[in-house]
Amino acid sequence: MNKFVINTSEDKSILSIGQKNLIYIFENIKGYEEEVYDLFESRKMSIPELEMMINSWGGKLKIVTLKQLINNYYKNL
């Protein structure tokens, strides 16, 4: 089955489903969400540095592409 997917942002901008569209999943960062969001948005830290900081708090960062997410969704139907 071939899938055709259109992904949009809140402002209706169309985004690609290719390998460049990344989903960042943060786990176990309760109480640090705003700090992580600010660091992520301002790009003051590289992703590996941010991941090390999150790991030091006992949290985790997982990165998947939108394409991987869609493929896994269809595998689990």
Draw up the topology in text.
Blueprint: E1 7-8, E2 14-15, E3 22-27, H1 33-42, H2 47-56, E4 60-65, H3 66-75
Antiparallel strand pairs: 1-2, 3-4
Please outline what is shown here.
The protein has 77 residues and is an alpha+beta fold.
Keywords:
alpha+beta; two-stranded antiparallel ribbon; 21% strand
Structural class: alpha+beta
Helix and strand element order: EEEHHEH
Shape: globular
Quaternary structure annotation: single chain
How is the largest sheet built, in terms of strand order? 1-2
> What profile does the largest beta sheet have?
2 strands, antiparallel
Strand content: 15-25%
Arithmetic mean pLDDT: 85
User: How many domain regions?
Assistant: 1
Poorly predicted parts:
none
Number of strands: 4
End-to-end Cα distance, whole Å, is 13 Å
Query: What is the CA-based Rg, rounded?
Result: 15 Å
Number of helices: 3
Share of helix, binned: 25-40%
